[in-house]
Design a protein that fits this description.
Strands 3, 4, 5, 6, 7 and 8 form a 6-stranded mixed beta sheet that branches. This protein has a two-stranded antiparallel ribbon with strand order 1-2. Strand 4 and strand 5 form a beta hairpin. It has 418 residues and is of the alpha/beta class. Helix 5 (141-148) packs across helix 15 (355-373), helix 6 runs parallel beside helix 7 (231-240) and helix 8 runs antiparallel to helix 9. It has 16 helices and 8 strands. The radius of gyration is 31 Å and the shape is elongated. Helices cover 48% and strands 16% of the residues.
Length: 418
């Protein structure tokens, strides 16, 4: 259709819609011009269908929500035969594709269905009910499925696990849901979300079910799992990924130590010693400094010292992996940053109307993050081939010089923090 036979009449400035301030209301003007143009195009299409002598039987009015607002379509009725403008809208649809895409994007950013409804009304886009928004965002289910159901053939040496809690309505009651996620680094150096689910509580059974789902979909070759110290999670990791090492997130460990110290000065000193220890790169020195930190913290508070002592091997597991990987695998920061992005979106919703809507929003956000990560490499692929190349003998006793240096660094760090 190259031309429009029924041209819209010329419009003077006086005929154009205006705002309360007296200036031209360009949105309403655009709606009016689009209505005139599309309706004229449909009249032309009917003429071409059966000639200009085609007998009409009035019009069917349809309202279509678009990104510029709601437009009124006058679809010609025919006495013989039928006509439907497939180029203009889909059957039974009240929203054009661009509008659906726009609604889906703002939904992914965390705008709740009711806020979208209010925003649409304020922008004069037309009435958008929460159920209509839900229908428009149903297309995001495919994004969530790409995270929850994708199958893999490559190996994933590193796996980060975590959970964050959101509120969800179930059977008329608002309950907490643990959104559990898994981020993996592949042998090609890529990083991606490989798992998403929700559970009532973080338990051994729920984590085991989640991890088994990862295994079924091809997440294998895991050499190290990084997470916090949830006992059910640790047990599930040992069962589902036997032979893999477990790294206790050192940031969570530091928080745990701080939580057992009552005095602020004691917390500062202990955290300074731990921070200084984990900044060092020489494995022998790190182990010696950790041992000295255990002694110093135990002298301040026995319980805090016991926590460090019990966590020693798990907190230092990262030292057995390549030096260039240690900064990324000693903490769960990769998950912490992702969880903040999830919470930014879920906090705007506050209470999800169903578990399905929860998975839809979070899954779409994670799929977007996977697309962003796909543009680069998280780790060097060559460096993923031999994870044991920098492994040192953790049982070897450190020499006198190492012990002396470790004591000096720890004591100095605590003194400066006092």
């Amino acid at each position: 259709m190259d031309t429009v036979a029924h041209e819209a009449p010329a419009m003077s400035l006086a005929d154009m819609p205006t705002t309360d301030e007296g200036t031209i209301d360009f949105r309403r003007l655009a709606v009016r011009l689009v209505e005139q143009c599309v309706n004229a195009a449909m009249e032309m299409a009917v003429d071409e269908l059966a000639g200009e002598g085609v007998r009409r039987n009035g019009y069917r009015e349809r309202r279509l929500m678009t990104v510029i607002g709601e437009i009124r379509l006058r679809i010609p009725r025919l006495r013989e035969g039928s006509y439907f403008p497939d180029e203009v809208l889909r059957p039974y649809s009240r929203t054009d594709r661009a509008m659906v895409g726009a609604i889906a994007e703002v939904y992914k950013l965390g705008l709740s269905t009711r806020k979208i409804e209010r925003a649409a009304a304020e922008l004069e886009f037309g009435r958008l009910s929460p159920s209509a928004v839900s229908r428009m965002t149903a297309g995001l289910d495919a994004d969530a499925a790409s995270v929850r159901e994708a199958e893999y053939s490559q190996r994933f040496p590193y796996l980060w696990l975590d959970a964050t809690y959101v509120s969800c309505r179930d059977g008329g009651r608002v309950e907490g849901r643990a959104v559990v996620t898994a981020i993996a680094a592949g042998e090609d150096g890529s990083r991606r979300y490989v798992g998403l689910d929700y559970v009532d509580v973080e338990s051994f059974d729920s984590w085991r079910g989640f991890l088994r789902g990862l295994r079924r979909r091809g997440v294998s070759g895991v050499s190290l799992v990084v997470s916090d110290a949830h006992p059910g999670l640790r047990r599930a990791v040992r069962e589902v990924f036997p032979g893999s090492a477990w790294q206790r997130c050192v940031v969570h460990l530091e928080r745990g130590v701080a939580g057992r110290l009552r005095r602020r000065d004691d917390r500062r000193r202990a955290l300074a010693a731990l921070s200084t220890t984990f900044r060092e790169r020489d494995p022998a020195l790190v182990r010696a400094m950790y041992a000295r930190t255990v002694e110093e913290v135990s002298a301040i508070d026995r319980r805090a010292g016991e926590l460090l002592e019990d966590a020693r091997e798990d907190a230092l597991a990262y030292l057995s992996f390549p030096a260039e990987h240690r900064l990324k695998i000693r903490t769960n920061n990769v998950q912490e940053r992702a969880n903040r992005e999830i919470k930014r979106r879920t906090d705007a919703v506050q209470v999800f109307p169903s578990s399905g809507s929860l998975v839809r929003l979070v899954g779409a956000a994670l799929a977007d993050q996977n697309d962003a990560w796909a543009a680069g490499r998280f780790m060097d692929a060559d460096g993923m081939r031999d994870l044991g190349r920098d492994r040192e003998d953790g049982e070897a006793a450190p020499g006198p010089e190492t012990l002396e240096k470790a004591a000096l660094l720890v004591v100095e760090a605590m003194r400066e923090a006092a």
